[in-house]
Amino acid sequence: MQGIIYEEPSILQFFFVTCLLGGWAAWMTGRACAQTWRSYPQLVVYILGLGVGVRFIHHALFNGTMFSLQYYVVDTIVLLVLATLGYKYTRTNQMVTQYHWLYEKASPLSWKSKS
Fold first, then answer.
1. Domains contained in the chain, number
2. Which of 64, 74, 84, 105 is 20 to 30 A off residue 57, Cα-Cα?
3. pLDDT tens digit string along 43-96?
């Protein structure tokens, strides 16, 4: 997988920077967008910028390639998945808490109308 998904000599570096540090920031970005009732396309724009930040951390800490489209896309996809999970989880809790007479949880990431 080295060279396809990550460029570092160890997958632990990819996991630490992209999944742990960047993933936490992405989750919190998704959560913040949901709490402030922002739309999902706004979240995508924020994550595109966060992807550049994660590439910079790879470059600064581990001498990775700063401007690599392949690794930027991989990092941004991972961040977008985690941000979407944070967004959907927070939005579901908002909907079932604020509109408890209309909606109930269908799963941790979705809600449904009460019958």
1. 1
2. 84
3. 999 999 999 999 999 999 988 888 889 999 999 999 999 999 999 999 999 999
Distance separating alpha carbons of residues 52 and 73, to the nearest angstrom: 10
Evaluate whether residue 6 is within a structural domain.
no
The H or E element that residue 62 is part of is helix 40-62
pLDDT at position 32, please?
98
Q: Quick one: tokens of 93?
A: 């809790």
Question: Which structural domain range is residue 41 located in?
Answer: 11-90
Task: Please indicate, yes or no, if residue 104 is contained in any of the structural domains.
Answer: no
Query: Cα separation of 75 and 7, whole Å?
Result: 11
Quick: pLDDT tens for 4-25.
Answer: 677 777 788 889 999 999 999 9
Note whether residue 113 is domain-resident: no
Spell out the residues 6+ positions from residue 55 whose beta carbon is closer than 8 angstroms to its own. Answer: 64, 65, 66, 67, 68, 71, 72, 75
The residue to which tokens 């790879």 are assigned = 58
The two structure tokens encoding residue 84 = 């979407």
